[in-house]
User: What shape does this take?
Amino acid sequence: MDTRTRLRALAAATLLGWAAVAGAQEPGPLSSYDPPLPDSFAERLRNADLARGEQLFMRKCSSCHDQEKEGGHGKGPHLWNVLGRRAGSIAGFEFSEAMRNSGHTWSFATLNYYLTRTDRAVPGLAMEFRGLRREKDRADLIGYLRTRNDNPPPLP
Ligand code: HEC
Assistant: This one.
């Protein structure tokens, strides 16, 4: 290979590499997209206002979800221990096929992405709640949900 051919091959490989990176980062359904944990979100999570998170939970989620250890399923599944759980897997609740097959595990990153826009994260889901637009709301709420767990995962 002469220098020119080599350079051309290198340029092509670089372009292909970028295309692959761009493709992998295209936000889409959690079944094929592994969302990052944005630094800004991690920072807010470390400083989460848990009392505010609880209020948000009561206002926005508690009509369908129970988050207490001794609780159970309502219109939505029991959310005790949700962090670390595989999506759509808890026994005794009839999930949509979309949620059962989405294949991800609930982490800070997937919950944050899900609660930003639920129908983008799990198209065809059965949860009638569109999402929380503000990052601070999601961080306070997820910070609070972290405490509803037998083994709260370490903060990022
Ligand atoms: C109107 C009822 C309703 C509201 C309000 C609601 N949810 Fe849900 N949620 C559901 C239903 C129903 C499902 C099951 C979805 C499916 O199977 O597609 C669900 C599923 C979930 C799951 C997946 C659980 C698992 O085990 O995989 C999470 C996490 C969740 N909701 C969090 C929340 C949070 C946090 C809020 C408040 C910001 C909220 N939901 C508000 C009804 C609701």
